[in-house]
Structures are given as C-alpha cells and as structure tokens.
Amino acid sequence: MNQNRIPRVGIGGPVGCGKTMLIERVVPVLASSGYSVSIISNDVISKEDANRMRLNLATKRGLLPENLVVGLATGGCPHTAVREDPSMNLAVIEEMETKHQELDLIIIESGGDNITTTFSPALADYFIYIIDVAGGDKYPRKRGLGIETADLLVINKIDLAPLVNANLEVMEKDAKAVRDNKPYVFVNCKTDKGIDQVASHIMHNVLFDEPPKAQQLKR
Measured between alpha carbons, how far is residue 141 from residues 119, 162, 182 in Å? Predict the structure, then answer.
C-alpha cells in the first residue's frame, strides 16, 4: 500500500457547466481550513482551464504554487483519460505523491463530456458530477451514469432558472428520485451560494474531518 497516497476527488460534467469555476470557488474554502490542494485539469487539446486556474488560484489569489496546477491534453475522448485509461493522470498523481507529501487533496477535473462521464475507481476516491440549470429542469431525469452514480450531484447556475423557465423544485424532486436520495447541492458559483456545502461534503466524506497535515505536524 502506498503510504503517501493522497485522497482524490474527481469533478466531471458537460462543457460549460461550471467545473472550473466550481474548483476555483471550493479551493479557497478548503484553503481557509488549512488544507493543501493540487489540481489536475484534463482537456482534449488545450490546457486552457489549467492555465486559467493557475492564474486565478496561484498567481492572483496566492492560494496554490503554480506547479500544483497541472494541465493534461488528453488528445482523445475526454472521459477516456479519467475512466478507461487513467494512466496519464495516475502518472502525474504518483509524481505529486512523491514530491508533495504535504498535500491533503488532489482534485481531478475531467474534460467536458456528456452525462455518461464517470471516474475510474483507480483514479478518484470521490466523484462530483456537475450540471447546470441552463439545460432545463429536465436535466436530472435524463439520468446518465454521471447523474445517477456520482457521490455528489451539483446543480449549478441556479440564478438562470427564471430565464430558462426551469423549476428548481422539479429538479430537486427528480434528483432525489434518480439518485435514490444520494446527496445533491444547488449552487451559484458567481455568488458562492452552496459552495460551503460542496466543501463540507469533501471535508467530511473524503478527508473524514481530519485536520490538515500541516496542523498535524505541529502537534
């Protein structure tokens, strides 16, 4: 067993649903509690999302060293690198575990894909799937592996509900039915509504409410 194994959270969802912004909002909450985080961002061709997070979290906010935000250009179907063949991601994680044993968590962002996205259990310990209200209130009942099986479903951009005639109560009812009462959170990344709840799920279900490594070393 790898004694240096760092807990991992996978975040997946369609293009434009808000995966990157969710990470940008959740990481500061985790950091405020003392947790040290690294991010691996998968994309098909570009490393745009990784570069954006590196700018926002590493450069502007000073929350992460730049080398802890890694971009991977998968060159194929977005879900392949996080599900069928996660070797590219696992190689980066192995390097992180060797060089950065102080890390409490690694967040892995999948490339934008459809509602079938899931993460290989060899890669992620906990899977967050994010959709957005702009797709209409029928989105949860469309099912799909991501919506059905994710440890946590995030329904983002709730501020758009009135503009697209989406009923949040319908989405909540369908999410409960489709997910067999597994947890879900309504989120507005622009105002941080629901972000604390997402961070709490990670701290409780992935980090098991353990104090950050930095605090443990001081004891």
Answer: 21, 19, 14
pLDDT, one tens digit per residue, over 164-212 is: 999 999 999 999 999 998 999 999 999 999 999 999 999 999 999 999 9
* Dihedral angle computed from the Cα positions of residues 50, 53, 59 and 65, in that order, rounded to the nearest 10 degrees: -70
Q: State pTM to two decimals.
A: 0.95
Sheet with 37-43: strands ordered across: 69-73, 37-43, 105-109, 8-12, 126-132, 152-156, 184-186
Taking the C-alpha atoms of residue 69 and residue 50, their distance in angstroms, rounded to an integer, is: 6
Contact 212, 33 (CB under 8 A): yes
Q: What is the pLDDT of residues 38-60, one digit of tens each?
A: 999 998 778 889 999 999 999 99
